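Below is one record:
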Amino acid sequence: MTPADQNPPRYITRILIILLVSRILLCLVGVGAREIFKADGVLEIETTTYSTIQSLDIWGRWDSVFYIFIAEHGYTDLLTSQVIEPLDLRLLNFFPLYPLLTYLLSYILGNTFISALIISNVALGGATLLLFRIVQKESDDKTAFHSVMFFILFPTSFLFSAALTESLFLFLVFLTVYAIQRSRWFLALIMTIFASVTRSIGIFLLIPLIFYYVSEVQRGFLNFFSRLWEIVIPAGIGLFIWGAYNYSLTGDFLYFTHTQKYWFKELGNPFTNISSLLSGKDDEKFYAIYFIIVLVLLLAGWRRIRLPYLVWAVAVMFLPISMGIGNTMRYIAPVFPIYILLGKSIRNPYVLIGTYVALGLSQILLFMNWAIGGPLVV
């Protein structure tokens, strides 16, 4: 056991305070933006109201309405509230763990939306501490702290506090990585199962899991292939259960893979899709440039990122763009190697502070756009 496992990190309290202050600041910014733009008559808030308390309501947008609906009604028809028929199975696009946890907590609290926010923010706190421990184990306290700061300040970090799956998914990803670092293979498998029923990309955790299992346990690929079932089959249990539920409703075990058509998504050439975004509207160009910048940073800093996690990051980034999803910003948010890369790379204190400020201001601007119903960060 390393000293990092034996002693409480010096920075933990500081990290939690910074995280709390950042969320309070975002609440003030979001509520203020709504009031200002409402007075100007340009506010375009969604028709869905999640809470009469503005500082809470600002954390629900886009897919939040579907997760809240599923938590309250299950996978039923949005229009008729009846058990969904084969021709209207759009909700099976949304994986079940987040709405299930929301449903269970709402039994205690009596409020579905607040339950969803609590799950998201508890998961965010856990993810933040796990990221510190992950980087601390392979580096040092200072690098771990800077990595966490980049995570908190990154432009799309506010999504981890919203009524969405992002923070729960990343929490499970970090638990998997944490377990892999410490060769706790059973825990890593369980977390992979949970991640795969939170987001479809959770199954990509097999990439680092298989790599490290081969290198540390099986001692070679030839021996590993004869025992591949020890990793792949258990890790696929979550998707198997979800597929079985899909089959019970539709007669199609893989129906959740076909629901993309209801959301105008089809698998295609990712490079063609990026090119289309670059030649599209201003917001589409913004999404494409954002995607390219993050990808270039990851590839340029490949020496500072462990190969399995770099491969995982690229896979997570390319799946949504391959599906024709224009706005990839939300889907890039859980790509944690970018936070570690920045934490390891930027050492000059002036550059560090300048980068913190630039990222923090970018997050504030994006959150204002989110709070007033703007089109960015779907």
